[in-house]
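fyi for ur records
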Amino acid sequence: MRRVVMTAVGALLVLGILAGCSKKTEVSGTSQAEKVVFWTSHGPPDNGILESIATAYNATNPEVQVQFVQVPGSETDVTSLMTAVRGGTGPDVYMLDRFTVAQRASDGLLEDLTADLAKLDANLKDKYLSFAWDEDQYRGRTYGLPFDTDTRGLYYNKQMLIDAGIDPAELDKKNGPITLDRLREIARKIDTKDAQGNYTKAGFIPQMEQGWHYTWGFLFGGEFADLSAGKVTPTDPGVVAGFQYLYDYNKEMGVQQVQTFISSYNPPNNPPQQHPFITGHLAMMITGDWFLNTMRTYAPDVDYDITYIPSVKQGDQPSTWAGGWTFVVPTGSKKKEAAVRFIHWACGAEGQRIYTRDSGHCPTLLSISSDESIFTEKQTYFREALFFTKSRPPLPVGALYWDALSTAQDMVVQNAQTPLEALRQAEQQTQPQLDKFLPL
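which gave:
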């Protein structure tokens, strides 16, 4: 999940967007060119790459001109889209967090693209990573095409480790993952407080960046859903153990001191160049391949590397999970045929090659995944991690479940609830809604 997105500011902004207040870009074409409006909530630096994909398409498809628009939103907040669709002013193409496709399809927000895509290529399913393709399905129908994917790893600042007396070679991925216990030992040597007891440097804070519920639940062997039984399983022992790790780590560091560090060095809407990993205030963090582009753009001189997420105990198999985004056609588009042609191109070899090369993300198209020439050295870990990655269960309440798990995580890192208490509440919030869609 991302990452760098615009903060949702409510449905009223949609009117401003449609009136021209938001960023819009299109390449001039003939007056007869059919215009396709493409919305994304991605912010810098990825929005510039997405705009370049639209530009490249327009340059070679003069009969269709794509209009690029950046809108408010996030992984689970599609207020702008919902308001526009229900008002009859929605876009023709929308970039949606893929794990929410089933829920948005069940909400009636997405066009069924099964027949439209089959006309362009009857064998599309066999050309994409299977988990990514499956996330675009709902009740046996296809609602989008997988655009990108991502995996997560441990970024580490070599100079900060050296300054603390740690040889960065210990974390080299060729050595496999270090353990969580060793991670904490290293972090303690880096943790630094001022006279008031506030952290000025932190070795590692588990909930920062991609330290999500799925990250820790999967790491501890947890499963978040039983699809055959139609159940969410947030109280699975492995998920509870992952949350217990978050609870204990924050308790040891000091809940208030951790919150103060985050609010001081990584507040909401923090400019990318002020990220604590870039400024030398955070030595290690779990995040995804998209952060490679952030480092390349804003911190080209920082000496860092990426390795496996630490294991629970020595000898455990590596763990990570993959997400990614998809291109969909919102309900009510009057340019469906042209929109599908753009989606097929953008999520095909041409579009994915541009995005993989320029953003650091991994492709979902198998032919691009096997082309080593477009991957940088630092992308190698993320590409290889696709061979052992897990993914979130494709549920028609996927976004709701994510938000419930996030609320539970907030309570746990604040030590306001025990893991089991918080996760039971997440189950109580989600399962009744899932029951409405059974059998899956």
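The radius of gyration is 22 Å. thats all i got for now
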